[in-house]
Amino acid sequence: MTFPVRAITLDLDDTVWPFAPIAARIERVLDDWLRQHAPRTAARYPLEAMRALRERVFAENTHLLHDFTALRRMALEQALRDSGDDVALAEPAWEAFYAARNEVEYYPDSLEALRRIAARVPVAALTNGNADLERIGIAEHFAFRLTSREHGKAKPSACIFHAACARLDCAHGEVLHVGDHIEMDVAGAARAGLRSCWINREDRSWEHPELAPDLQFDSLAALADWLDAHAAPTPDRTAPA
Predict the structure, then answer these.
(1) Manganese: is it a keyword of this entry (predicted)?
(2) What is the mean pLDDT of residues 156-182?
(3) What pTM value is reported for the model?
(4) Does 178 lie in the same domain as 74?
């Protein structure tokens, strides 16, 4: 399939890097930090108990499901308060947690593919997560990052896709959204009027009752190859009009 692509919106977690290793690391880092600085909280909320508390806080605050940062901080503050530790420790504990969250291990193809894609068209990070592109070191490849926390609504809401298109100054149908999640990324983008690309690294079967992605690849490298073959040449912005 061939169609014009003027810009790309790109999911991050489980598209550019796997999230499972990050999730395991941040739990360990936070637990280690609490053992050193807030031992009563560490004793009352070991890994499993902290995980259960976090899930309870998420379930009780569904109005904040677009803001993982706020929810995780709420859970951390509640754990400290329940344990009789100083709630002010939530700030340095969060810093330790967030530093670990931004230590990513890319899929082998991601960095080179991202460089190739960004050389073709503007790329905007569009994520429900809270990764910091500057800390990670790849901000140079992105026109901007739009998070659900910043926008106030999460994917698959159409409005977050539309907000990204507006910032890219592109019509909805001129933007290709790329991501791994069938509902959040592909279905959300399609319903919002964007083109959609499913990154299916695990050879899953497509299962959706209403729609299918415009494109499907097993890596970002394959998407970069498609763009090289099908995208219009990048205009020379330095040439005289």
Answers:
(1) no
(2) 98
(3) 0.91
(4) no
Q: Could you tell me the pLDDT band of residue 55, with boundaries at 50, 70 and 90? A: very high
pLDDT tens digits along 33-52: 999 999 999 999 999 999 99
Three-state SS at 18: coil
Question: Would you state the pLDDT for residue 209?
Answer: 86
Q: Is 196 helix (H, G, I), strand (E, B) or coil?
A: strand
What single-letter amino acid sits at 21? P
Contacts of 164 (CB under 8 A, 6+ apart): 9, 124, 126, 146, 175
Same domain, 124 and 209: yes
User: What whole-number distance in Å separates Cα of residue 127 and Cα of residue 158?
Assistant: 13
**Same domain, residue pair 91 and 146:** no
Which of 101, 130, 152 corresponds to the end of one domain? 101
Q: State the average pLDDT for the chain.
A: 94
> Could you give the 3-state DSSP secondary structure of residue 27?
helix
The predicted pLDDT at position 237 comes to 38
Helices within 169-213 (DSSP H only) = 188-191
| Packed helices 68-83 and 90-101: angle between N→C axes, nearest 10 degrees | 140
